């Protein structure tokens, strides 16, 4: 599931899986086949996350429930002191949230935000979500319950375990690229404008890891090179490795950051440290 999400769906919805837009549209539906929704993902990820990376209240990837704090600009409460211990459990629940309530909640919120222009489109979106989720539950849960021969409790436990591993895997890849102390969490000025232009902003708010790991690069659809992806989301991930040295050299020439958190365990450790810090102190919103 994680491989389909990061290696196929992610590129397809960005329009970079194929030169053919119909192939991209078709392959984008793979996210629906694993329980989520392509239209909601496009608005959350392509529109909000890529346009407003690490900007509080705009980037939906860091808009967390009250018991999690992913930005130094978010309000802090007493629970956050312990988030470095319990956040991992909720990462594991993230795709379970996708297949149950999250898509409905986000579609409604995006409609209220004006990202979905009319009520008819919103209502049609709700119907599509329901039909796709019924399709997913039918083959992923109902058929195994009816035909596998295993006890219902075992099938349900396996289903939940599958989602826990998927949610944890996907969350660690994305969080290790954006919620670490090396990156910035900039805010707009009084006029509502950002200080940096788009590419400088992406370099400041995004981090690579495991630059030399071909295996991990393949497993996560090139998202070890998050910088290259954020700069060029319309380019297939198979080209990121060749782009990386050019991007790094150009960044140095212009005095811009090019963050790299080492191998994957190191990147996870830095995310762990960031969760700890965010639960205790008000970090500066922009790191120079």
Briefly characterize the structure:
Helix content is about 60%, strand content about 0%. With about 290 residues, the chain is an all-alpha fold.
Strand content: under 5%
Q: What is the multimeric organization of the chains shown? A: single chain
Distance between the termini: 38 Å
- Number of separate strands: 2
Low-confidence stretches: none
Fraction of residues in H or I helices: 55-70%
- The backbone outline, from C-alpha atoms, is globular
Q: How many alpha or pi helices?
A: 13
Give the strand order of the largest sheet, numbering strands 1, 2, ... along the chain.
1-2
Give the SSE order as H and E letters: HHHHHHHHHEHHHEH
Radius of gyration: 19 Å
Determine the mean pLDDT. 94
The figure for the number of domains is 1
Counting helices, strands and paired strands, the structural category is mainly alpha
| Major sheet size, sense and barrel closure | 2 strands, parallel
Chain-wise SSE layout:
Elements: H1 2-14, H2 21-28, H3 30-33, H4 38-51, H5 83-92, H6 94-113, H7 119-147, H8 152-178, H9 198-205, E1 207-208, H10 214-219, H11 226-231, H12 240-253, E2 259-260, H13 264-278
Parallel strand pairs: 1-2
Helix pairs in contact: 1-2, 4-6, 5-8, 5-13, 6-7, 7-8, 8-13
Walk me through what this model shows.
The protein has 288 residues and is an all-alpha fold. The chain is built from 13 helices and two strands; from the N terminus they run αααααααααβαααβα. The chain has helices at 2-14, 21-28, 30-33, 38-51, 83-92, 94-113, 119-147, 152-178, 198-205, 214-219, 226-231, 240-253, 264-278, and strands spanning 207-208, 259-260. Helix 4 (38-51) packs across helix 6 and helix 7 (119-147) crosses helix 8. The model has no long low-confidence stretch (mean pLDDT 94).
């Amino acid at each position: 599931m994680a491989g389909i999400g990061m290696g196929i769906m992610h590129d397809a919805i960005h329009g970079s899986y194929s030169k053919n837009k119909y192939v991209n549209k078709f392959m984008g539906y793979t996210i629906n086949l694993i329980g989520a929704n392509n239209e909601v993902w496009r608005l959350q990820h392509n529109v909000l996350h890529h346009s407003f990376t690490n900007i509080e209240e705009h980037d939906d990837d860091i808009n967390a429930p009250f018991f999690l704090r992913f930005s130094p600009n978010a309000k802090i409460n007493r629970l956050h002191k312990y988030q470095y211990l319990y956040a991992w459990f909720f990462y594991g629940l993230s795709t379970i949230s996708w297949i149950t309530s999250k898509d409905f909640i986000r579609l409604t919120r995006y409609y209220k935000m004006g990202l979905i222009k009319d009520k008819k489109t919103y209502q049609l979106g709700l119907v599509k979500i329901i039909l796709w989720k019924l399709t997913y539950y039918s083959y992923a849960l109902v058929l195994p319950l009816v035909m596998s021969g295993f006890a219902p409790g075992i099938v349900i436990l396996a289903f939940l375990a599958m989602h826990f591993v998927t949610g944890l895997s996907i969350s660690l890849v994305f969080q290790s690229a954006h919620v670490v102390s090396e990156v910035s969490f900039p805010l707009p000025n009084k006029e509502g404008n950002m200080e940096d232009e788009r590419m400088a902003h992406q370099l400041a708010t995004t981090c690579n890891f495991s630059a030399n790991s071909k295996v991990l690069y393949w497993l996560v659809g090139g998202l070890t090179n998050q910088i290259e992806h954020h700069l060029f989301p319309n380019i297939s991930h198979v080209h990121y490795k060749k782009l990386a040295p050019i991007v790094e050299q150009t960044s140095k020439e212009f005095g811009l950051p090019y963050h790299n958190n080492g191998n994957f365990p190191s990147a996870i450790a830095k995310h762990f440290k960031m969760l700890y810090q965010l639960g205790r102190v008000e970090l500066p919103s922009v790191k120079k």
